[in-house]
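note to self — DONT lose this again. spent like an hour looking for the file last time. sequence + predicted structure for the chain T wanted, 132 res
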Amino acid sequence: MYEPDSPNYTPRISGFVEIGQKVAGISIVKKVGDEAIHKTWRYDTLDGNELPLHDGIGRAIHTYQGEDSGILSPYNEDPFVLPLMGNAEDMANLLWNSLNPDTRVAVAVMAFSLTNQDVQIHTINKHTQVNV
């Protein structure tokens, strides 16, 4: 469920990885009108999949699309392609520094290898910094 913080109703974003199956995904739950809308994008390494998963290429979404009359509107696009450079901490810092300082709250990055199953997670939160 989205956050009950009227008037923005902050969407909730989650991600998942099935390393052994070489599958990953991103999900968002947001308020549209009076409904909770849930959207999931699933990426894998299967031939012919329209959402392929490749080493060195990430996918990302934002919580908000932008601001209209003081109200933040929920993200409303497919995940965008993000070339991966460095480790999870490097990517988290790059993303954090690219966000509007007035509206940014947190960034979470999960980096994993399709070949050796190595996983790195790094989060940045404006209130505290947490390393996992």
